Structure formats: C-alpha cells, structure tokens
Amino acid sequence: MGILRSTLILLAVTLVASPAAADVDIAKADKLFAEGLALRESNLEQSCAKFNESLQYNPQAIGTLLNVALCDEKLGRIASAVVKFSEARDRAKEQQLADYIKAAEEHIASLTPELPYLQLKFGVAPIADTKILVNDQVVGMDRIGKLAVDPGEVSITVSAPGRLPYQTTIIVAKREMKDVEIPELEKSVTVKSSRRTIGLITTASGVAAIGAGVAIGLFARSSYNDAIKKCNQMTDPPQCPSEAQTDTEKARTLGTVGTVVGVIGIAAASVGIYMWLRAPKDTGERKVSLVPHVSSETAGLAAVGSF
Hints:
- By secondary structure, the chain is α+β, with helices and mostly antiparallel strands.
- 50% of the residues lie in helices and 18% in strands.
- The chain has 8 helices and 10 strands.
- The chain has helices at residues 2-11, 26-39, 44-57, 62-74, 78-95, 98-111, 194-228, 242-278, and strands spanning 117-122, 131-134, 137-138, 147-148, 152-159, 166-172, 177-182, 190-191, 286-294, 299-306.
- Strands 3-2-5-6 form a 4-stranded antiparallel β-sheet, with no helix packed on it.
C-alpha cells in the first residue's frame, strides 16, 4: 500500500500519455489532482471527487486512475476498485511502468478474495434483446454466471422489447455468492384509446352527479314541507316560529345545492358523451415497455413502444 501512495504522488502528473480527446485539459487536471492530494487526509470524499474530476480532464493519466481506484477501495466499492486497478495495470504494462504495475497488482491480489458475486438465473430462457442493468451498469449475458459487485445494496433491472421490466434490490456481503432468480417478464400493459376512456368516465360521473342532485332536491323539498307545517297558515304571509323558519331556510339552501350539483352533472355528462362520440374509431393498441438506454455519458431506462 505504501508503494502506491508514494508512487502516485510522484508520477501521476508527470507520466501521462498524449491527450486522446478534444476536451482534455492537462493543466486543469493537474490542479484538481493536487487539490485531491491536499484533501486526502482531512476529507476523503472531497478528495476522491477531485481525483474523479481530474480524470475526466485527463483520462490518460494512469496515476490518477490508480488514485480513483484507491478511493473506491477505501469507500468500500471493492469490485469497482478491482476493475480500475486492472485497467491501470494493463495500461501501465503498455508503457512499461513497473511501479504502477506492482502497485496495481498488489491491490488486485488483496481485494479479489473479498469480492461478492451474483449469479443471475432466468426461470425461463430470456427472449432476444433482453437487457440487464446492475447498479446502472449494463451487464452482458456472458457475465451473469459469476458477476462481481460492490458489497451492500445492489439494484437489478431486467427488460426486453414488449415486456414489463423486472426490478429488484438485494443486499450482498463480502465474499458472498448469491443466486438471484429472474422470473419470466410479463407482457407490456396494453392501453386503449384514452379519449374514449375519459369520455366514458366523465359521462358516468355526470350521471352520478345528476342522480345526487335529484336526491338532494327531493330531500330539500321534503324538509321544506315538514317545516312549513309548523307555521300558522291562517295569516298572510304565514307566521312561523323561529325553529320552523330556520328549517325552511336550510331546506331552501339545500335545494339550491341540489340544483347546482344537477347542473354540473348535466354539463359533465354532455362533455363525456361528446368525447365518446368524437373519439377516433381506431382504438389500436399502444404497447409501452422500458429498456436500458446506454450512451457514452449515461445509462438508465427509456420508455419505448408504438403510439
């Protein structure tokens, strides 16, 4: 471990290959690398963030790559660390950098026995173009028998054209070999013409509102008749005790509410019927499914299908 620390500080900035991309900025990469070194003892996460950013500006810097791998190791991402140490070792061999080769191989040898592995097992043979994402990384079918992962929480997403994705999250410990059963993917949800569906729902809601308005109106009328019976009908206008007067006012208010609800129901039913009648007759099915989407910069899920 000591060899790695001293060697990286000395060589990471000086021994780099020629820039391979238009956005390479070696001066900025060196500045970020120095900032990462300064933070290494006081704030590991910020230090690692600096190393990662430095590597973006100079991806050919093997020493920086080794430091990023060392960060993964210290933060518990040992499978990620082994991948980066292996890449650094192979690139160092091309340039005959003996110290880098030795440092990388020492870390690979110490970490490999600690790695956890997953074995993905399909209950039914996967269909063509099935995609697998493990912690947002695309995994080929040739690796599912023994897949090294970082210990801790691991998310797995399996998708295929015309099928609903299967997603699961598991916990795996160091040195653990865990089997993960992948069920047969269900067929995609089929969606009919949304305009007709909305029209049907709106019409049904409107009819229900009309019924509610009528019921409220009948109840209000009954309440009004009961209240008016308590009044003296021999006078003009009838003289009502305070209790009966209050009841008649409540009945009138309730009648108004019933009228409003009924009007809203009529309007809703009218709109629903219009939408139903005006909806396109072609109710072709729309199939939607999620598949992993991978580019040079991102990895994730994309919705695809026919509309």
